[in-house]
Amino acid sequence: MGTFKSYIRNRRYPEGCIAEARVGIDCMNLFSRYLHSAVQTRFNKRARNNDECDPSDAETESLFPQKGCPLGARKTDPFILDKKSLSQAHAYFLGNCDEIQEYIREHEQEQEVNNHPRRSKWSKAKDHCQNFSQWFETRALQKDVPDLIKKLSRGPNFVTKRYSGYLINGYRFHIRQRDARRKTQNSGVTVVASTTSFASSKDKNPIAAKFDLLW
User: Ranges for the DUF4218 domain (predicted)?
Assistant: First the structure.
């Protein structure tokens, strides 16, 4: 009823106003079907949380397909990652890449041969995390390594972009700084991770976190 009431411009003839408004809307809908696909209409309008990026914003060259769509990239300037953040990003990337799993097993086997056999599992895991990136960079220089693996061994670019949010799987996430100015918050995420844990045998809880920065 509220929609129909908004069509009324002359209260003396409400039925005529509603009829004329509906005719105009139907005409516009009909004409919009014949417009160029680049013109946005109610029939081709993207959903608010559509995570398909604009082709002009997508990376021109990437080793992996981009999933989701960043928000706020055009309003921020590039910034330089510090050494610690760069090392953490590289280690996380290598540990979650299927193409690197065979090299991870190779490094672990070398550790078993070269180090003391009675070392604790915690000590072995710590050495692997600290030394794998450097070992992998040297290993990638050999001739039997594909070009893709060599590119991965060089690590990420130290110049990157900051984002204020991200669209993925139909959901919109923001950083805490942006959520602090709004009544609704959506910066909290839960990640179910598979990792080596030494706290206890029952330590299998998901990792709960909030976004401070997206890059």
Answer: 3-49
Distance in angstroms (rounded) separating the CA atoms of residues 19 and 9:
12
Element (H, E) at 18: helix 14-32
Fill in the DSSP letter of residue 153: H
Contact by Cβ (8 Å): 189, 209: yes
Range of the domain at 173: 51-78+163-215
Q: Name the domain boundary from 153, 172, 189.
A: 153
Other CB atoms within a 10 A radius of the CB of residue 69 amount to 20
Considering the domain architecture, whether residues 112 and 137 belong to the same structural domain is answered as yes
CA 109 to chain centre: 33
Report the pLDDT value the prediction gives residue 94, as an integer from 0 to 100. Answer: 86
Residue count of the chain: 215
Q: Is 211 exposed, middle or buried (0-12, 13-18, 19+ CB in 10 A)?
A: buried
Question: Which regions in the chain score pLDDT beneath 50?
Answer: 60, 201
Per residue in 26-70, pLDDT (tens digit) is 888 888 777 777 777 766 777 777 777 665 555 545 556 677 788
Q: Does any domain span residue 88? A: yes
